[in-house]
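Predict the 3D structure for this chain.
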Amino acid sequence: MPQSRTLFGRPLETSLVAVDRAISEFRAGRPVLLRAGEHLALALSAELAEGDLVGRLDDLAGGKAYLALSAARLRRLSGKNRAETGILAMPTLDLARIEMLALKIDGKVDAPVAPASAIDDAALELARLSLVLPAAIIVPVSAELIDGEPLVEVEIDAVNGYRAAQAATLSIVGRAPVPLEGAPETEFVVFRGGEGLRDQVAIIVGNPDLSAAVPVRLHSACLTGDLFGSLKCDCGDQLRETVQWMAENEGGILLYLDQEGRGNGISNKMRAYKLQSQGWDTYDADEVLGFDLDQRHFDFAATMLKQLGVNSVTALTNNPLKVGAIKAAGLEVAATQRVLGRPNVHNVRYLASKRDRAGHFIDMDALMARAAPKD
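Done. Predicted structure below.
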């Protein structure tokens, strides 16, 4: 890496800054230079690849380019149970073949799959951080080959450590009372950081006793359910009913986390919804796109709670992953409490999938009884 420049004695080229810039470049469809020791490779989002740029990369590659794909996507392409990422050789960077392997629903493996390197895994992590599909065109290069090119360079250790570094830099940047319907005594606390360049919000309802186990819900943003009342999920019900319950029961804290689509981003969520409309299960749809069951991380949520003075929680959730993350971050989970939504013809399969495939604590009989017409 080049030596750090300074502004008023402070370094500019920190690892966080380098990854921030790499995310911006990758998300814009421009190649990023990844470094692992003396090894260098250009990484480009397969989803955003276009003709002229791919042609220039092909000239640089000299037949050594390849496509890095997630384990989930390779499972779909091969029909085999696979837990590791892998690569497929690209002697020629052919856009049609890239699209078939990375994007097409009916794509099939057409060449041997080789093990991925540390650079390849970092490229896929960069794709996830950029909220694009986890598929990357990789071109190994030498320093001489790309000398003078205006590329953003980043160490793979910085990419892999980015999420933890973001959590460590979380800080409160603003707070204010925001009276809500049914919960007039509510304060919004905004934190900078946690997931890429996004802000996170803690909503303190009432006056929870911080010396006891605080009722807490980790709620991932759901534009369709929270804002528009989508019938495809139970998110909006869980959000509003949690706030109402807290207002009626001595308060609590709801963390509103910018993790749309189980961490895949709104564009990939819509792709998954399109597949679901064609009959795919919610988790199968994500796997077709290259994602595992859940891409979310909750370590920064625990950091938010600690900064608010919370040491023990009653977790309002059906998701064992959230409970485990809170415990792993050093907070006590004194109890858990289920959060029920309303089942309907559009979301009952989704709810059953969460129960059966992701281990959510969902009592379908109780949900159906709740939805039954009242006499």
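The chain has a mean pLDDT of 90.
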